[in-house]
Amino acid sequence: MSGHAVVVGAGVFGASVARSLAQRGWHVTLVEQHVPGNVRSASGGDTRLLRAAHGDADWYAVLSRRAREQWLELQERTGRRIWEQVGLAWFARDPEGFESRSRLSFERLGIPHEWLAPDAARDLYPSLRVDDLNGVLYEPEGGVLHARVATQLLVEDCESLGVRLEARRVTPAEPPEADAVVWACGAWLGPLFPDEVELTLSRRDVFFFGGDSGWRRTPGFCDYDGPFYGHGEIAGLGVKIAPDVPGGPVDPDTLDRLPSAEREAEARAYAAYRFPALADAPVVGARVCQYALTGDTHFVVARHPERQDWWLVGGGSGHGFKHGPALGDYVADCVEGTREPEPFHALGPRTGDAGLRTAAVG
Ligand SMILES: Cc1cc2nc3c(=O)[nH]c(=O)nc-3n(C[C@H](O)[C@H](O)[C@H](O)COP(=O)(O)OP(=O)(O)OC[C@H]3O[C@@H](n4cnc5c(N)ncnc54)[C@H](O)[C@@H]3O)c2cc1C
User: Fold this and answer.
1) Does any ligand 1 atom lie closer than 6 A to the CB of residue 11?
2) Under 8 Å CB-to-CB from 262, ≥6 apart: which residues?
């Protein structure tokens, strides 16, 4: 099956779907209201972590491994740097927690990993507090993506495959004419389809600290029970420390992207606690973005209930970036009818928490 597809939204999800469809011979128009990789979109962040650990959820571990190969292929083919192979460390406080479940998943799936005793993990960073840790799950093949650049590169790759990029805002009231329309609108998806998609938009502040050169290429980290995550010095940005605590509701169009003093204090306190060498480091940068959270942190990939040729794709829930290219193939399979979407990506109420990102709530 092929024909004309319109993909609305040139974030990592939409750009990936557009690329996958174009690779299969579809004529694709990719429509973006701002510009691809704009900082109001979740995909417009400077960096995003790529990890395989997803607790018990093997489906996402497999997707992230497949996507990693595709990101590496894109970097190799284009000669543009989008990937930092720095590894990723999970600070495990609870012996039965997310990290232990992820370790079992890695064993089931044959994903490279190490389980480090707290003292052995000290060597990963210029300084690391370990007295509250049970161990550290280390992913040597995890790392950091240059998210904004990677999104823009995906769009360039789309254009080289003949995808037409169009700058405008599309609405379901004046829908595009096509054989298939994929609405991959990030934080805008819920407001566009209020009867079908329930998303909570939750603000997140990200900080960069001025560490010394010892922080160059140190591993990304997730402290699930903190909840904080970040990475070492990359591309001159500084050491990233991000509190993954619930922020207030946001309107992605009108939000002033200035960091909150309260979140900054939390980031400084965490930096001093976990990485004592950063106790006096200055804040050298900050970003404000938003999560588009589903109730259970599973994504949304579903047909519109009344328009079988429309697909609703989103609910990245704070962990979607890394999966982009592999998610694009999955959605393209669904559009072509060669597979059905997973039941856990369906529309409708979501209960429980699949625990797919670092914070348990909001
Ligand atoms: C602070 C922060 C940290 C994160 N950390 C990580 C991480 O470490 N690892 C990870 O894997 N993920 C992470 N994520 C999540 C990840 O960034 C998102 O899941 C992913 O980028 C979502 O991509 P998207 O394409 O669905 O949405 P977006 O990137 O928001 O893109 C949607 C696009 O659609 C456009 N659009 C919307 N409506 C319309 C319309 N009507 N017409 C035309 N265009 C439209 C928008 O302008 C936008 O460009 C993080 C997110 C945030 C906010």
Assistant:
1) yes
2) none
Residue (of 35, 300, 340, 333) closest to 193 by Cα position: 300
pLDDT, the chain, mean: 96
Model pTM score: 0.98
Structure tokens at 76: 């190799």
In short, whether 190's Cβ falls inside 6 Å of ligand 1 is: no
**From the CA of 139, how far away is ligand 1's center (Å)?**
25
128-137: per-residue pLDDT in tens? 999 999 999 9
- What single string gives the DSSP state of each residue in 165-220? EEES--BTTBPPPSSEEEE--GGGHHHHSTTT---EEEEEEEEEE---GGGBTPPE
**Distance from the alpha carbon of residue 196 to the mean position of ligand 1, in angstroms:** 19
Q: What's the distance, CA 111 to chain centroid?
A: 20
Q: CA separation (Å) from 212 to 209, 216, 239, 264, 275?
A: 10, 8, 9, 20, 12
* Cα-to-centroid distance, 23 and ligand 1 (Å): 22
Among 29, 39, 47, 48, residue to substitute to test ligand 1 (most atoms within 8 Å of Cβ): 48
